[in-house]
Design brief:
Blueprint lengths: L1 H35 L4 H24 L5 H33 L4 H23 L5
Helix pairs in contact: 1-2, 2-3, 3-4
């Protein structure tokens, strides 16, 4: 039984990355749809981001980290996750607006570049604040 847990632990980063990649593509597709439907690019970004974050959280919680903390621990973990993501969304929106509306850079190049910056920042924050309960 211990060996199965060790093997599962080895695959955890791979599952985390796969779910992150799926969520990132989901976010970009939603952004494209909302922006094409006529939403301002900042509103389209915020809505697609929030939907993708929820999608990502629940997939990771159920498939990667297998929530075993009970309701109280789960609520605390979720609040940390939300706070970090709200900070990311605020920073992302400011940078997105500055690059597109002030510097007049191409929207899609900026969106993709900021996505990679955000992934890196989220990884760093995740390691600093350790959202997974051991």
């Amino acid at each position: 039984m211990k060996m199965n847990k060790k093997i599962a632990k080895l695959f955890e980063p791979l599952k985390y990355c796969a779910i992150g990649a799926i969520s990132t593509v989901f976010n970009l597709v939603l952004f494209f749809i909302f922006e094409r439907l006529g939403l301002h690019y900042i509103a389209a970004n915020a809505i697609s981001y929030m939907i993708a974050v929820l999608f990502n959280y629940f997939l990771n919680d159920k498939l990667v980290f297998k929530n075993t903390t009970g309701k109280r621990g789960s609520i605390g973990k979720c609040l940390k996750f939300i706070l970090i993501r709200l900070f990311n969304l605020l920073a992302d929106s400011i940078l997105f607006y500055s690059c597109v509306s002030v510097l007049l850079l191409p929207m899609w190049i900026v969106r993709i570049a900021l996505t990679f910056i955000e992934i890196t920042a989220t990884y760093i924050f995740r390691n600093i604040f350790s959202l997974s309960i051991k």
